[in-house]
Amino acid sequence: MIICVIKKNIVSQISDFQEQLPFILKILGILIRHVVSEFKESMDFMAKSTPKKLVALVLSAVMALSCLATGAVSTASAREADELDPSGMKITAGSQEGSTPISNAFDDNKGTMWETNWSSGGDTSSYDKHYVVYDYVRDFSKDGIEGFEKVSGNVNSSGINENGEFEVVNATGNTMFIDQNSKYLSNVDVEYKFNTSKDNGNMGIVVRYVNDDNWTAIYPASGGGNGLSWQVKNSKGQTYSLTSGDYCDDGQRIYSDRIKPYTLRVRVVGKVLTVYLDNAEIYNGYVDIITTGAGKQGIFMQSGSSITASYLGVTNVVPAAAPETVEETTIENEKIRVTLDKNFPRVIGYEHLETGATTPGETTPNNIIEINNKQFTPVVGEAINNGTSITYPVTINITDEKAVTMNVNYALDGNTINYTITDIDDSQYTIYTINFPEQAMVSMSSTQGDAELRVNNYNSETTVDLSTVVEADKAYKETSIAVLSDGNIGATINNGSIKARKSVAYRTVAAEDGSFVTKLWTNEFLYKGIDNEVIEEPWAKIAITGDRNQDDVVDFQDAAIARRDDAGASEGQYGYVVGYENYQDSMTMIAMNVGSAAQYPFLRILDNVKKIYLATDGFNQNIIIKGYQSEGHDASHPDFANYNTRAGGLDDFLTLLQNSEEYNANIGVHINHTEVYPEAPQYSIIGSTAGGWSWYDSAVQIKRENDILMTEYNGEDYQNMGERLQQLYDDTQGLLKNIYVDVYFDTRWAMYKLQDAINSKGMSVSTEYVNMMDKASAFGHHIDGRFNTAGNLVRFVSNETQDIFNNSTLFRGMTDRATVGIDGWQTSYRLDYTIRQFFINVLPNRYLAQFPIYKYNSNSEAVLGEDMNVVTKVVNGVNIITKDGKEIANGNKIFIPWDAETENKIYHWNSNGGNSTWYLPDSWDGIKEVYLYELSDTGRGEPTVLKVDENGQVTINAKASTGYVVYKEAQAEQEDVQWGEGGYVKDPGFDSHDPNYAWNAGDQDNISFVNNSRGNTEAVINGDGTLYQTITGLTPGQQYTASVWATVNNSTATIEVKNGDETLSNYMERSNVRYGIHHTSKYQTYTQRMWVTFVAESDTITLTLKTTGTGTANLDDVRILETTRTKLTGTEICHEDFESGDEGYGVFTTTESDNSHLSELNPGVTNDVIDGNYSMKVRAGDYLRTMPYTVRLEPNTKYVATIDYFATGNNAFTFAAKDDITGETLASVSCGNPSGWVKTTATLEFTTGDNEAYIDITRGNQSEYILDNFIVKEMSATMDSLTALYEECDALNADDYTEDSFAALTEAMTAAKAVIDKGDAATDDEIFTAYSNLLEAKGALVGYATADDKARLRTAIDEMKNVVESDYVKDENWTAFQNKIAEAEALVEEEKVTVNAIDEMINALYAAKDALTTVAEWAELDAIIEKAEAIKTANFNDGQDMVAFTAALAEAKQLREQSGVGQSEIDAMTEKLTNAYNAIVPKVNSDERGAFGVYIARAEAALATMPEGNDKDAMTKAVADAKAVYEDTVTGNIGKILAAYEEIEKYMPEEGEDILGDVNGDGAITIDDATAIQLYITKAIEDGGDLGNGLVFNLALADYNHDGKVTVNDATYIQIDLLNK
Fold first, then answer.
1. Residue 65 has pLDDT above 70, yes or no
2. Is 84 within 8 Å of 94 (Cβ atoms)?
3. If phi over 0 gives left and psi between -120 and 50 gives alpha, with beta otherwise, what is residue 327?
4. Element (H, E) at 208
5. Cα 1167 to the chain's mean position, in Å?
6. How, if at all, do strands 620-626 and 586-592 pair?
7. Residue 1200 to residue 1272: CA distance in whole angstroms
8. What band does 1487 get if pLDDT is binned at 50, 70 and 90?
9. For position 1526, what pLDDT does the model report?
10. CA nearest 910: which of 958, 943, 953, 846?
């Protein structure tokens, strides 16, 4: 239909109808010319459509005339629109003018009209524009594809499919389908609903298409990692990424075959682009490369994309009219007065009644509401105003037949306006989004004093001085937190928007008086998701405030306080951080199980909870377990209810959960809902083709929405994401406190569904990155310095509710998550370090987290607490914290009352030790004496009574770096801790420190339970000693494995099990191999695990640990685990099939591994299991070997070892036997199979020398291979084994083998039979000789090929024949290759051919192929792959860049294995991997960080002596920048550190006399000074000592690191400083 708009002054400008007659006649003339034009173009015009068109035109004219008289209102928003130039009545589209006839203004589509704007001739300045809304929809199922034309590119096929959808298969190039039935539009909304069969994006929308030389496309480009790169491309070949990081700040990818089709909508107004996906706006901004002018619309596709589309809709964007009149009404309470529009839900202004200060609401109103991103003018009923609240009944007529209704409410609560949309009725038309576009909830004028805007989106913070703004924003922007202030009034808003980092919109616009107004509003409410379920009734809170922190000015701090205290989400509303209290007063640590190693079984974690509990006097803990499931970290995700049996399974997990609360510990788990791993049951159902993390296994990205929506698959019930989380919750009996969601980047509906599935069960949700799930995440894993700048809004608002902040001097806190804790994530396995960090960083930080921030406008001081009585400040680089004016922390001296509310005890720490005097808290007034307890991992020691002096002070004489706790009264004796709770073995980690607590040690004084250098408790036995324990509760007939970790030095350690009448034992004589599996305190120590396996005769056994010798044995982590180890048969001494369920790599250990693991069978999906359910998967070429106590290879004994494998190519790895003392190779075999991933068996025969031996597996040409069925047999024969072998050989068929090989076997059988016939008269030597010869002859048999063998050759032939000729040079190698194929084809047709000949021919084919001269150049890609594979991920930050790097490496390796790869693909992959390699960031170690801090201190000292001038100014900035980098070094950006060094060096004064560090006085700091300090430390020289060459040692200049003493650290820092410089 036609809707005309006349601005409100048009009526007054029309003096009478006669004046408008020329204008009216001109319109009629246009209409007549249209009819004539149509007639000329079609002779059957009258017959086909003239009557209908004439009727339509007449009606149009009548309505146009009516518009002139009545001034109708548009339903479109306030946007610029295409105009009809009144001069000659030609079409003007944007800036492009042409003589397009007016006939283009109409078409045959029913119910659609072309946008028409007109004005009277002559001077048009006094006239207003009139607009016709064009609303066009092509429903492919009804309208077909006539006029839907492919104008560029190529496709395999296109057309209407059986479902009535427009289907395009495999587009190439820039493929565009243009709807020629649509009209030329400039400002336009285009929407289409589609699905795809590809996971790579590359499909979108074309706007403003004129011809191949004039168009703009918007689309999600193909991308890796965790999102798609949304792009704008134009006809000039220009592209623009919609964010600087190549991601549209939207975590959703476009995946194939989504259950609900995607809806993509694009709005272009001028050069402002808005993109909507699934109804949610995901991008808004000014894009300069958008082409100007009017054009048609259509679908855009790039290479590799395929789609099915159900419709294409087009609507022009026209200006919205301001209401003719605005009638005001008010609501108010004792705090504020709010002026509103009486006839439309809109705030006009606010007044803070206490001060009289005001600030505006919406200054340029329009009466528009958007439903599902479409604009409507609603019908607003009479508002109901009760004085402090007002309700607007709103009806939106979607069509003549369909409407939706709702109430929009404003209600005052103190200085807050609660805005809600309630009573929504969308039964006639489903509402997904509700938006009042660019309608300010609150705003601020540039004329308002010190007007300022601050915004923070959890990535960065921006401050804008509004009084200096000189131009309006081209487009609105979005953020998480926004505050306005002007010195007199502050304002902020919050809402229930589920759009991460985009919940608040803001924009600066020009006002009529030449000033500027900055507006804040809620950028659309997502009311329903793609599941049609209500997310939440829309709400927002607007807070208006005065001075909140008593500093006599209303600035951003006051507005931030209002945002936190007044506008925060209430419990039950989206944005309320569920479970924040679990983090607020806790130390959070990560436990790690990964790669089948079960580094920290659940019961070990429970004992470690108890250790921390005792060492911190019960301070709260949060333990997040990575690897609670399957084989450990990430394995089998997202199969959430799959419990790590090697770590103890669900039973032990429940024991941990049920008992941890007693020790003030909350337990959470790590899940992944971004990637799916091959062993997961969901892999083939929700896995995409987009690569994911490739660490222990190569994952792919999840089709996340399908996993949420799906309820059945292939006719069977499907357990979707929510149901699996429910099962996890049920299985764990509701005891899980939080779920940490790894590597998550979604930002909208899918994110909300995951959060809700977790939060609705009372569990908190936490994330890997601190900018994800900004409103809901209680904890961030990868903390960095982004929130450490003064006044940071996130810190201001969320200090009490989100544990996402990195260490800073002012607030302290953890420096990272990888070092604090004793459960193994990265290097978090040092007890002493963890306790030190607890006292000097975690405890002060958690104390400050108990209080809201009130003042924080510098990095040197912050004031907290409702009474503003808690102050943290930095004085001379040292943090000092006070409460009520009393010091509670001064650097590394701590005297902090806990908890902050009750203050019932006080924690004390003094790194240097000695006396320190402290005021007791005010709440302790009147106390005359206090009780001081020293803390350790056994708990509180005996109390020391301290007298309180008349000033309320106590003096504590503390040991250095030792924790203490102070109580008002003597505490009851500590209850004994039950170590090993839930397990068969009591005190399995010797954590009791008492040899007779659970073990029987008697009075052996050579046995002690002590902590090693990493703080892990061990049993240390000097000389001969015995510990034993009676184990009960076993199940008779069940197999168990009893194990112990041990290190021996001139000692032999033995583990022994007395099982009924049977005694089994194993022993360790030497510790000569480092343990190489990561994420454990045992990493790179000589500790190894030995075990015995037994089948319980009864429910009781005796477990004994004993040592003999003159040296020392260290024992730890004794464990009994149910296993299913394969029973040995015959002469087997080892049968490792990796099916036992035990921890680790079976009988193998490794010297370095952070990649290998046991691969698990997923039928039809995985190809990395040879037999059974598990195989050993070697990744990164990790070295494997047996140990004498895992496979006992005795001296001077003959063995045969076999192993099955999958390995591609020749010499993938070497299988060898070696002497355990000398390392001499006894035998070896090169393993590999050019046929590819085919089960192959390697055999190794060897005789040991005078020492024990071991088997090892060493990387060759491949880094990844699969192992299984490792069997070792002792070749010591008995009559029974000889007879069995003879019978086995006798059953063979001679026809299956070559005549010569079978004759040799027959001869050996004859000799064996002679020995067998001797019976008891046969000697052992005769039996052994006969057995060995017969076994050798059997192994030498040459068999004829079976049908399967020939099939292998045929497969290889087919592969060779499919080689792409164009990839290779046609030289002599090519000729030889073709000849070899011909030979193979002849061989495979032979009736009798040996297996050896088949294998040799397969090898020859691959060798011939390998010899081909390739056209493609791989050298650059190979070089970067080699560099990338050398990367140790543990040395780099585990962030999004690392995710992209590992995905790129996996893609590159996959490409490298492919044939037929073109040079362009190789070059593109080389560039991609190189860029990813360059983007990963190495970690900064503590020495580098310390040296950097020392250097900054030196620079500050030099700065103080510099004269005023430009150099000093530049040096001041360089030092300030360096300090900011120093605060941020935990992100690991060593490049920033080096750049900071370089910048300071530009201005650092020349070094002269008496330079700190120049201890030899030669005028410069060199390596000689470091050497001299080391000489002094070792007492080789004294102060003033002769250093030669006339130089003497100056002790006064030796304290290089300013710690008050001269140690080796000073020499170290000099060396690091020199290296960095």
1. no
2. no
3. beta
4. strand 203-211
5. 27
6. parallel
7. 6
8. low
9. 76
10. 958
Place of tokens 């000292």: 1501
Chain centroid to Cα 827, Å, comes to 20
Measure the CA–CA gap between 177 and 312, rounded to whole angstroms. Answer: 11
Burial class (CB in 10 A: 0-12, 13-18, 19+), 1564: middle
Q: Which amino acid is at 269?
A: V
d(C-alpha 1011, C-alpha 1601), whole Å: 30
Sheet holding 369-371, edge to edge: 374-376, 369-371, 433-435, 525-526
Grouping H, G, I as helix, E, B as strand and the rest as coil, residue 244 is coil
CA 735 – CA 732 distance, rounded (Å): 6
Rounded CA separation 75/61 (Å): 20
What's the Cα-to-Cα distance from 1084 to each of 594, 989, 1078, 1113, 1249, rounded to whole Å? 17, 19, 8, 17, 29
User: CA angle, corner 874, sides to 955 and 617, nearest 5?
Assistant: 45
Per-residue tokens: 317:
């964007």
Number of residues in the chain: 1621
Angle (deg, nearest 10), helices 50-70 and 21-41: 160
Let me know: does 1215 contact 1242? Beta carbons within 8 Å: yes
Q: Is 579 within 8 Å of 763 (Cβ atoms)?
A: yes
More confident residue, 1485 or 1019: 1019
For residues 383 and 1443, what is the distance between their CA atoms, to the nearest angstrom? 54
Is the omega angle on the peptide bond into residue 899 within 30 degrees of 0, that is, cis? yes
For 101-131, write each residue's pLDDT tens digit: 223 333 333 233 333 333 223 333 333 444 5
B/e letters for 757-788, b = 16+ CB within 10 Å, e = fewer, are bbbebebbbbbbbbbbbbbbbbbbbbbbbbbb
pLDDT band for position 1615 (50/70/90)? Answer: confident
The answer for residues whose C-beta is within 8 angstroms of residue 15's C-beta and 6 or more apart is: none
List, in order, residues 6 or more apart from 1026 with CB less than 8 Å away: 1001, 1004, 1104, 1105, 1106, 1107
Least confident residue range of 518-532, 836-850, 1293-1307, 1567-1581: 1567-1581
d(CA 727, CA 961): 45
In this structure, what token pair is assigned to residue 610? 């108890």
- CA trace torsion 37, 43, 48, 52 (10° rounding): 30
Q: Which two tokens stand for residue 1555?
A: 């330079």
Which residue, 686, 616, 676, is CA-closest to 642?
Answer: 676
Q: How far apart are CA 309 and CA 194, in angstroms?
A: 4
pLDDT at 588: 96
Q: How confident is the model at residue 323 (pLDDT cuts 50, 70, 90)?
A: confident
Taking CA atoms, 1239 is separated from 557, 689, 1123, 1401, in Å, by 68, 27, 26, 18
Question: DSSP character for 108?
Answer: S
Alpha carbons 282 and 959: distance in angstroms, whole number: 58
What percentage of residues in the chain have a pLDDT greater than 90?
69
Which among 620, 615, 609 is positioned nearest to 941, based on CA atoms? 615
CA atoms within 13 A on the CB side of 916: 23
Whole-number mean pLDDT of the chain? Answer: 87
CA distance 123 to 853: 61
3-state secondary structure of 832: helix
Contacts of 42 (CB under 8 A, 6+ apart): 48
Beta bridge partners of 462: 455
Residues facing 232 on adjacent strands: 218, 240
pTM comes to: 0.81
Residue 504: Cβ-neighbour burial (10 angstroms; 0-12, 13-18, 19+):
buried
